[in-house]
Amino acid sequence: MDGEGSDKAELLNACYYNSLQLAADQGLKTIAFPAISTGIYGYPLNEAARVSSAAIQKFLAVNTRYSGSPSGFLQPFRR
What we know:
By secondary structure, this protein is mainly α. The chain contains 3 helices and no strands.
């Protein structure tokens, strides 16, 4: 990935991670994300899924209070 692409991946990763941190700080039990940046911004869906998964895994590793139930933490939405 070129420099610009990696910057976008880092920004997307931070978006997910910071959103999870804000949710945790507010004591939220659930949170739902759309496929952020994959619409009008045209971020590739598969790459966005990889980035979001990495951010979630990092958040769970750092915030061990959620590590007991990671399977319940990540649930895909289907139409």
